[in-house]
Design goal:
heterodimer, A: Rossmann fold, 4 helices, B: Rossmann fold, Alpha-Beta Plaits, six-stranded parallel sheet, 7 helices, ion transport (chain A), RCK_N (chain A)
Chain lengths: 137, 220
């Protein structure tokens, strides 16, 4: 699979490392060049330094041929703009978006192509599941 | 109308004053404490201090009853996000956004933002016109630049100087809105005579602006 990842923070770099190790072709786009240091040494994908909210930068990352885009910057507003650009301007078939503020999820609801991962909701769900499971014991 | 303005600086200040003077109810959201305080002191509007990209702040500003939300920050991602939040969460029907990167204009349009102001294009077209001719000033653009209203000073060597309007060869879609002579304004009729030094207020499609400038402004 050809995967473009926007944002190379802790989440983006972890995903990029694992997905590239499991045989996917990966491109990582990140504005701050220092962040590429978070990628594991065996990362074999491409690194592009630039603002993903600029079409030229997305094009450089070959967004048009991406099977999957993962949008994972730490800014909900940038994540929203980049996901909409990918959907409307570049017709990316599958877009996974990380959200910081759980209340933002609803903004993506109308579009089936978006898959939303709210870290706070996920964490809370995991904890609740564990608490409930342990409660049964 | 109930209007929410997001952003700060001079633009918001003047815009808010104008809207208030026309009888609209204006609420301003600003995330800079000092600017918010200054605005609250100087303008008769409700000022909410906070980040408009936060749902609770929009709620505090009365987004559920707003007719129009105008987002004028320097960041396109903030303007888009705030407008969409107002639409999706509070059912605001009209949203207006400043677009700093011209490439985003179409995207914002597709996403349902009703008013889009492409700053870069607006400013560059105004500068372009003032470079082309010093005697042309752009008064305003209507419907995102689909119609322009501007003013041209009649040059002594222009084809129009000394002629009556009906004698001037003008495309039909160029409308003359006024003649300014020595500070007095008259409404042009077919028999009005144009003199060198007159300032003509013209309403035209942007693509016909150059033609109008050529007729009244004289040879380049």
């Amino acid at each position: 699979m050809f995967i473009v990842i926007v944002g190379c923070g802790r989440t983006g770099s972890l995903l990029a490392g694992k997905l590239s190790r499991s045989g996917n072709e990966v491109v990582v786009i990140e504005q701050n060049p220092d962040s590429f240091a978070l990628l594991p040494v065996d990362f074999s994908g491409f690194e592009i330094e630039g603002d993903a909210a600029e079409s030229d930068v997305l094009i450089e990352g070959k967004i048009e041929s991406a099977d999957l885009l993962i949008v994972s910057t730490g800014n909900d507003q940038i994540n929203y703009l980049v996901s909409q650009m990918a959907r409307v301007n570049f017709d990316v078939p599958r877009i996974m978006v990380r959200t910081i503020d759980p209340s933002v999820e609803k903004m993506y609801e109308k579009e089936e192509r978006f898959e939303i991962f709210s870290q706070i909701s996920l964490l809370a769900e995991n904890m609740i599941n564990k608490i409930e499971r342990e409660g049964m014991r | 109308m109930e209007i929410i303005l997001v952003g700060g600086g001079k633009l918001i200040y003047h815009l808010a004053k104008k809207l208030i003077s026309k009888g609209h109810f204006v609420t301003i959201i600003n995330k800079d404490r000092k600017l918010a305080d200054d605005l609250a002191r100087e303008i008769k509007a409700t000022v909410v201090f906070g980040d408009a990209a936060d749902k609770k702040v929009l709620e505090d500003a009365g987004a559920y009853k707003a007719d129009n939300l105008v987002s004028l920050t320097q960041k396109d991602h903030s303007n888009l996000f705030i407008c969409k939040m107002a639409m999706d969460y509070f059912g605001v029907e009209r949203t207006t956004a400043l677009v700093n990167n011209p490439e985003n204009e179409e995207l914002f349009n597709i996403l349902g933002i009703t008013g889009i102001f492409n700053v870069t294009d607006l400013i560059s077209s105004i500068i372009e016109q003032s470079v082309i001719s010093e005697d042309v000033s752009n008064l305003t653009m209507i419907e995102e630049g689909k119609l322009s209203i501007f003013q041209v000073e009649v040059a002594p060597d222009s084809a129009a100087a000394g002629k009556e309007i009906k004698e001037i060869d003008l495309p039909i879609s160029i409308v003359l809105g006024g003649i300014v002579r020595n500070g007095d304004i008259s409404i042009p009729r077919g028999g009005s005579k144009i003199q060198a030094g007159d300032k003509i207020v013209i309403i035209s499609l942007p693509e016909e602006q150059a033609e109008a400038i050529k007729v009244f402004g004289g040879e380049e």
